[in-house]
Specification:
alpha/beta, Rossmann fold, 2 domains, eight-stranded mixed β-sheet, six-stranded parallel β-sheet, 15 helices, 14 strands, 18% strand, globular
């Protein structure tokens, strides 16, 4: 009898959020390897738009979308409402439905591990937790609530039981593994096996492309200047104000252009800063269609990957893998204690400066503009590092083995 699993994820195709893209590719790979896979996900769209059907089939994968609120996720109350209603619906679907399914695989979202824990208690169904962002530590470090607040204590209690009862945990980096192991030790709870599996990008679709041959680059004028590119979610954990300050310092140097593509909680603030400073070298574009990504991700020279202080070991921005695949040098606006800094150092594919270090960003950009050969070497190293370590098939095979063992 074939193995049957449920994949629980807050986002899934056609959503363009990274977790939705990764969840689809994990599910399809499990299906290709002979594991019958069903998906339970949310109807609350990442980019607000039309409603998605409750029941769907995507490339042979049965998909059930839980009905819940669809408020603006950029507002805290909207985010909490969307999460709470989805948790309730997902708990009902996975614990009381899908009889005959062997294992529950839980993709990243706060408190989802509790659903696996309840399911194991009531149904005896094993589960695997995929931890892509570490909560409540991330919320505490970003000042959402206090380190000793009741919310923190309750969340820690739930995590300790959810993780200790899991068959295994999958996380994205060695530093994240250390944080999880440390929190389990402090709670006095048994820690299950933790598998470290990095994220990835589609290295077949996203490939280095000369700007002179890139229609997107020509359309937006990035082929004529050294372009610093940010593409993706402009979230609260990303230090993008430093980049605007650097653009201000370089406003009279026509060698540079700064392009922001995407949306998120900080976009309005960044656009206000641009208008206030009247920056002629900064432009904003919306999220691009999937078919445009091979051109938009390769229209720059340096790709910004940034994290605010205090989130080290708690997240890894997935955008770095698409940037490496695109052959972009990496501008890492991160502290030394991050996987991003580790990757830049290991592959010599860019430069890293501390968050808030405007002068460091400006000095490094001017140095690369003065030494284009060094910049080209960094870009080649980026793709080489991707091919050797971060290809999709490498990561998906690790997922298969980790999930099969459950």
């Amino acid at each position: 009898m074939p193995k049957r699993i449920i994949l629980l994820t807050n986002y899934f195709h056609p959503e363009t959020a990274a977790v939705g893209v990764y969840a689809k590719e994990i599910a399809l790979h499990l299906k290709e390897r002979g594991i019958e896979t069903s998906v339970v996900t949310s109807r609350a769209t990442y980019q607000r738009g039309g409603r998605l059907p409750v029941n769907d089939v995507i490339e042979g994968l049965p998909v059930r979308r839980v009905i819940g609120t669809r408020f603006d996720k950029r507002r805290l109350l909207g985010r909490i409402s969307n999460l709470g209603t989805f948790l309730l619906g997902a708990l009902t679907e996975t614990v009381f439905g899908y009889r005959g399914h062997d294992t529950l695989v839980i993709c990243n979202a706060p408190l989802f591990g509790a659903i696996g824990w309840f399911g194991k208690k009531l149904r005896g169904r094993p589960y695997v937790c995929i931890v892509e962002d570490i909560y409540p530590e991330l919320a505490v470090n970003l000042g959402v609530f206090g380190a000793r607040s009741p919310i923190r204590r309750i969340w820690d209690f739930v995590n300790a039981r959810a993780y200790s009862n899991a068959s295994s945990i999958i996380t994205l980096g060695e530093r994240m593994r250390a944080v999880i192991e440390g929190s389990m030790k402090r709670a006095g709870s048994k820690c299950p096996p933790i598998h470290v599996i990095n994220s990835w990008a589609d290295g077949d679709t996203i490939r280095p492309l000369a700007k002179s041959e890139n229609p997107f680059a020509r359309e937006h004028g990035t082929d004529r200047r050294l372009t610093v590119l940010y593409s993706g979610n402009m979230g609260l954990a990303h230090d993008l104000e430093t980049i605007l300050e650097a653009a201000d310092r370089l406003r009279d140097d026509d060698r540079f252009h700064f392009l922001f593509i995407g949306d998120g909680g900080k976009r309005a603030l960044l656009e206000e800063l641009k208008a206030k400073k009247q920056l002629p070298n900064v432009a904003f574009l919306p999220y691009q269609p999937t078919e445009t990504l091979p051109y938009s991700l390769t229209c720059g020279d340096l790709s910004i990957v940034t994290m605010e202080r205090g989130v080290e070991g708690l997240i890894i921005p997935s955008k770095i893998y698409g940037s490496l695949a695109a052959g972009q040098a990496i501008l890492g606006l991160v502290t030394d204690l991050t996987e991003i800094a580790d990757i830049i150092t290991a592959h010599e594919c860019g430069f890293q400066v501390q968050p808030g270090d405007v002068e460091g960003v400006v000095a490094n950009l001017r140095a690369l503009a003065d030494d284009p050969d060094r910049l080209e070497a960094m870009k080649r190293n980026a793709r080489r590092g991707f091919d050797e370590h971060y290809r999709r098939e490498i990561a998906l095979e690790k997922y298969f083995k980790a999930i099969e063992s459950a």
